[in-house]
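The authors assume throughout that readers already know how a fold can be written as discrete tokens. For illustration, here is how one protein appears when written out as sequence plus structure tokens:
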Amino acid sequence: MAYKCPVCGKTWPDTMDLARHVFGTGDQAHKDWVNSKGLNFVELLLIQTMEPGNKGYKTLAELLEKEAERV
């Protein structure tokens, strides 16, 4: 089962890959979506780059697990 990006509709095999896509795309639409869900895109990106353990990806992946459509 795959997960569909709630912003652009691309599909990814799991929520960690989808989280990487959201960070990697980094366009305004993806940033706005993250921010609209009560998270801060820039803060998550800083956490990801400055702290060990993929905390930024994991936080976003947990949100996407709840929010993304499964296909």
